[in-house]
């Protein structure tokens, strides 16, 4: 459970800066504070431009706004169109640093879940809170990124840093095939030494949490078949159990046999009868039948989430074995859909990065950030580079109600997050 944002903000600013900051680091913190209203104004500009994943022109417009922020800081910026995946594209920016500097990959996204037909469209500020589509996820994260980079620029530490930024245009609704949609990000991960994800900060009971893991997202479709006939004949040796009972058997077995740590699984849509179909997008079902007819077909679609690729493989094997234990007179098959999000496991390298961030917290006079339970986070783009590079998640601002009308950001949290990010990136870039 999260505390109200006004309480989080009041607790977060109660501790003064620690004297262990270097002069450039102190300059960075002062710059973040001095440019706070500028950052809020940028956030409003980004939020007021709709960029639902399927609003391709809107996503591109937000990309141009971010280009205008990055080019003056010395980044070479390019737009990678994603016409082949039916999405707008990605913004990719690079800045070469000093020889031998750690190569930092910064990850965020331009799109939101709020499409052009959503009634939730505008930025509304009330003191240190603001509502708006994507105000936390992920436009607030992009503003934190810019604020940190501007602070580094003002302190003279940006020149030494080697940074590549990938802002995807379809994080909330990825294009297909996903291998193409994430090719630029994956390539950037292979070039990087550290990946930093600027999605939102989790706050629990007034405590900022560190994130070193994200779970996968894997979709599946289950289809069952039965012998149709008069309902009075169900369960006999000729007609067997029928398609719907077979589907129910399988789903009940998932519930009883699959549970293990860090796994969640869900059945999102079900249909069955004499006929049963899903639409092409897999989000609408139709069925027909009668109470006195044994159903010949049933279909279900769902997902499951894991903390490692080994766990993903194990769960798939368990599900496949459950499906294969057919009830009498039935058949079934399960298909695991390609293009899911991989897992980002909580590796020792990720833990070491959180330790470095907690060194920054100590010097800023902020409390140490314990690792967040990965069950609290959904899937995200950084997972596509997790096998190639150590990473941290959650460098964006604290927010609540993400992905729903009323999404609200704690504006003050942008300041402490930008300070953390600027100092962490400077230290990492210098070999710290």
TrEMBL record:
Residues 212-329 form the Peptidase M20 dimerisation domain. Keywords: Hydrolase, Metal-binding, Signal. Pfam families: M20_dimer, Peptidase_M20. The keyword Metal-binding applies. Residues 1-19 form the signal peptide. This is M20/M25/M40 family metallo-hydrolase. It comes from Sphingomonas qilianensis.
